[in-house]
Amino acid sequence: MNRREILGAGVMLAAVGIGARAGEHAQHHHGHGPTFIKNPLLLEAATACVNTGQACISHCLELFAQGAKELAACARSVTELATVCNALVGLTNMDSKYLAKAAHFAM
After folding, report:
1. ∠ CA 94-97-103 to the nearest 5 degrees?
2. Which of 29, 83, 88, 89 is 20 to 30 Å from the Cα of 11, by its Cα?
3. Rounded Cα–Cα distance for residues 22 and 10 (Å)
4. At a CB cut-off of 8 Å and minimum separation 6, what does 7 contact?
5. pLDDT tens, residue order, the chain (107 aa)
């Protein structure tokens, strides 16, 4: 599975899980914080992608400490993926004019 497939799967899974929590999330943040985010599902999915990627990298580091080297390529790919997702988080928060291009590139 390549990084684009992983990102696509992560975005889809996050979008499914987010729907159930959207109302609760909106109530929790009512009255403060940015209310102008035009792509809240993308923001949530990209944030989940970053968090999952960081957990994966931590796991790889634990295995590296035990002498396992076979996950080096995976760790590199996940680091690249988390970097792209982190960029999407920032661009989504800013409603950047580059968001559509960045999201297309990530997929």
Report:
1. 85
2. 29
3. 18
4. 49, 81, 84, 85, 106, 107
5. 555 555 555 555 444 444 444 445 555 555 555 567 889 999 999 999 999 999 999 999 999 999 999 999 999 999 999 999 999 999 999 999 999 998 888 77
Q: For the chain, how long is the longest CA-to-CA vector?
A: 50
Task: Look up residue 33 and give its DSSP letter.
Answer: S
Structure tokens belonging to residue 28: 């929790």
> Taking the model in full, what pTM does it have?
0.65
- Residue written as tokens 């959207």? 22
Structure tokens given for 30: 């009512």
Domain carrying residue 76: 3-106
